[in-house]
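Fig. S4 source data, part A: sequence.
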Amino acid sequence: MIPRSGYRHLPGLFRPDQLRALRARLDDRAGSQAAEGERERAALARGESSDALRKDPAWYQVWREPDARLLEAIRPFTWVVYPVQVRIVRALTHRVPWHQDIGYQQLLATRGHERIATCFIPLDEDPAERTTLEFARMETGALVHEPADGFGAGLPRSSFEQTDSYRLALGDCLLFGDLAVHRTFVPPGANVERRSLEFRLVEPGDSLAEKDYFDIERGLFVRKDGSTRSAP
């Protein structure tokens, strides 16, 4: 079980060769992204990606034939929300402020989940030398969020006394609950640019009708009604 306020650095759970292939795919497609409407233009300005890029089912290759250690770490959160968040951080203006992921779920209203976990997977060859995530060392319930720095949800408090960040390698991930307080963090001397995948995970019983998920244990895209398919 992933504690709602908890976070973990899990080394070597994903295949570097597979992540390199996905990085090449991202680099090939990122330059041709076209924003459809104001919402997507704002997303691209924040270092996020277009819906067309996010909906590429290829990103879910990382969940096929999962490492036994990965399954042990994520259970019972074995359904991955579709589509994934693909981030291409290029500037300091892309830094996400302090927040909890529950704050973003609340913005989605009836389309948001009551509880999620997040798996952050860097795609760069040298993630330890690039912008990453920083966590506030605290246990708390859901906090009040407000729009901040161009993002839909942030915490008014701008600093925390005790924090943790990790030197990641290609193949590592960060796994954390939806009450974990975190932000984008640029270590001293690090490269601001970063490419990453951020997957939201749910327990099957917390899934929503008419929404697609990837069932890690079965290797199929599924829906709450029991239907399955090879791709959305």
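Fig. S4 source data, part B ends here. The first helix runs from residue 16 to 30.
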